[in-house]
Amino acid sequence: MSLITQLFGDQEMMDPFLSMINRCPVLNTPTDWKETHEAHIFTSDVPGLKKEDVKVELVDDGRVLQLSGERPHDDDKDGEKWHRVERCRGKFLRRFRLPENVKTDGGEAIKASVEDGVLKVVVPKAEAKKVERRVIEI
């Protein structure tokens, strides 16, 4: 028995890398994180999901942005047989520790939307604290 068969089973021998991606929730929900002057922007691929299927939360005292949801399994009907399943299904969960320069305000300032299979979350930045200079007389 080959190592590939031991790791992935006979059915996945055709494409073991794809099988690994489908089993890994981090790889099957790719997310980009971009910082601009005004905000941190998270963009995730969530093909086939509606906004009701996705949850955006602040956890750990508002310091972690959590994106989760579920890609539903297609119900099997009598007499149907799947020949290949490449699209990932099931639950996904992504967590991102937010930097100190974000404005969470309990989540009201954060904007999220789902359009054309893309989840976009905008976390605004807090205003930079101005450093006060005091002259100390010598």
From TrEMBL:
It comes from Linum tenue. Pfam families: HSP20. SUPFAM superfamilies: HSP20-like chaperones (SSF49764). Belongs to the small heat shock protein (HSP20) family. Residues 22-138 form the SHSP domain. This is SHSP domain-containing protein. Keywords: Stress response.
